[in-house]
Amino acid sequence: MKRNAIQASANQLSVPSVAETLALRAVHRAISDLRRGTPVLLRGEGQALAIAAAETVSAAALAEIVGLSATAPVLLMAPVRAAAVLQRPVPLSAPDEGVAALRLPAGLTSPESLRRLADPTEELLLGPDGGGMERAALPPLATAALALAKLGRLLPALVAAPVPDRDAPGLLSVSAADILAYPESAATTLRAVGEARVPLEDAPETRIIAFRAADGGIEHLAMLVGDPAGVLAGGGAPLARLHSECFTGDLLGSLRCDCGPQLRGALRRMAEEGAGVLLYLAQEGRGIGLVNKLRAYALQDEGLDTLDANRALGYGADERNFLVAGTMLQLLGIPRIRLLTNNPDKLAALSACGIEIASREQHAFAGNGVNDRYLATKAERFGHLF
Ligand SMILES: Nc1nc2c(ncn2[C@@H]2O[C@H](COP(=O)(O)OP(=O)(O)OP(=O)(O)O)[C@@H](O)[C@H]2O)c(=O)[nH]1
Ligand SMILES: [Zn+2]
C-alpha cells in the first residue's frame, strides 16, 4: 500500500496525562448534562454553584436546584442579553466580567418562561419596565457557568444557586478551572484516528485524515490534496485553508454566506497547483453551533448584522479557537504554509502556534445579491482584508 509521506507523522504530539484526561472527561460529561436539562455542580475556590441551562431545564431539575440551596436561584446571562430583558443598560461591575445575574420574580420561574427569557428570537415576556426583574449579586463561578453553556452550544443563560461545597447526590461535579481551560486542553490532545483516499470532484488526488481530541468531541478533518510534503521538501510552502464547518453553505448551497464557493474554490486551487491542505474544522457558525446560527439568522432578518446577532444571543462575534488548526498542521508535519484567507485573526492565531505563514493568499468571491451585507460586515466590522 502506498503511504503518503505526511500521513506517517500524523499521530499525537504528546500523550495526555491522567489528570488532563479526567478533566476533559468531566467537562464533556457536564456539557451533555446541561444539554439534556440535568443540573451540574460547579466547584472551585472553595465554593460551589448548582446550575442548569435555561434553554433545557425541566421543572424537576429546577426543584432539585432549589432543594440544594438556601437562597433562591438567579438567572445568569451575558450582560447584553440581561440589558435586553431589563430594557435598560447593564453596567459591568468589573471590566472583564462578561456575565450578569438577575433575580427572578415569582411568576417567571417556569421552564417555559426561563427558556423565553434566554432566547432573543422570542417575544419579550416582560413589560417596558422589565416586569419586576432586577439585577442580583453575582454568585461565585458565574463566568465558568456561562462558559460551560457556550461549550454546549446552548444559549448562554443559566439558572444558578450557590450550594455547600461538597458532592451533591446524583449531580456531576466539574471544576470551574477545567471548564475555562477546556478549549485549549482539548485542542492539544488531538490525534489522527482514521484516514482514507477520497477522490473529490474538484481535487481527485485527495486523502482525508480525521482528528479526535481526548474529550471524544466532534472530529476535525484534514484534506490533503496532492503532495504538500513534496512542496515542503523543495523548500516551498503549500497552500493551506482553515475552513470552519458551515452546514448551510457547504452542503446546501445557502446564499446567505460565501462558505460554499470558498470551500470548493480552495480545493480547486490546490488541485490546480498539485498540492495543498484544507482543514475542515468542527466550528459551525463561527463556533456557536448550527442551532444558534439559525437563531442569529432570524435576528439578522429583523435587521441586526452578523456580528450584532451573535452578541444579542450572548455570544462573542467569533467564538473560534484556531489552536486546533495549528495543532493539526504540526501533527501533519506542515510547519510552513501559504494561507488562503481574508481573516487577520487566522493569520495571528497560526503564527502564535509557531506556523510560518510564507504568504497570505486572498480568498474572496463576488457577492450573490443575498450575502452582500454579510460580506460588507466582514470587511467593515471584522477587519477582513478583501
Ligand atoms: N454566527 C454566524 N456564523 C456564520 C454566519 N454566516 C456564516 N457563518 C459561519 O462562519 C464560518 C465561516 O468562516 P470562514 O469560512 O472560516 O470565514 P472567515 O472567518 O470569514 O475567514 P476567511 O474566509 O478565511 O476569510 C462558518 O462556520 C459559518 O457557519 C452568520 O451569520 N452567523
Ligand atoms: Zn457559511
Can you describe what's shown?
- It is a single chain.
- The protein is of the alpha/beta class and 386 residues long.
- The model has no long low-confidence stretch (mean pLDDT 93).
- The strands form two sheets. The protein has a seven-stranded mixed β-sheet, sandwiched between helices.
- Strand 8 (191-197) and strand 9 (206-212) form a beta hairpin.
- It starts with a helix and ends in a 5-residue tail after the last helix.
- The protein has two domains: 5-13 and 189-283 and 320-381, GTP cyclohydrolase II (Rossmann fold, 3-Layer(aba) Sandwich), CATH 3.40.50.10990; 18-183, DHBP synthase (Alpha-Beta Complex).
- It is built from 16 helices and 14 strands.
- Helix 6 runs parallel beside helix 7 and helix 7 (176-188) runs parallel beside helix 14.
- It is globular and about 70 Å long.
- The chain has helices spanning 5-8, 18-35, 59-68, 79-86, 111-118, 142-151, 176-188, 228-233, 247-251, 259-273, 284-287, 290-301, 306-312, 323-332, 344-352, 372-381; strands spanning 40-44, 47-53, 74-77, 100-103, 134-136, 157-163, 172-175, 191-197, 206-212, 220-226, 239-244, 275-281, 336-340, 356-361.
- The structure holds guanosine-5'-triphosphate and zinc ion.
- Guanosine-5'-triphosphate binds next to strand 11, helix 10, helix 11, helix 12 and helix 13.
What structural class do you assign from the helix and strand content?
A: alpha/beta
Order of helices and strands: HHEEHEHEHEHEEHEEEHEHHEHHHHEHEH
Main sheet specs? 7 strands, mixed
CATH 2nd-level architecture of the largest domain: 3-Layer(aba) Sandwich
**How many individual β-strands?**
14
Percentage beta strand? 15-25%
CATH topology call of the largest domain: Rossmann fold
Ligands bound to this protein structure: guanosine-5'-triphosphate, zinc ion
CATH class of the largest domain: Alpha Beta
Based on CA atoms alone, the radius of gyration comes out at 23 Å
Protein name: GTP cyclohydrolase-2
Family: Belongs to the GTP cyclohydrolase II family.
Organism: Roseococcus pinisoli
Domain GTP cyclohydrolase II: 193-360
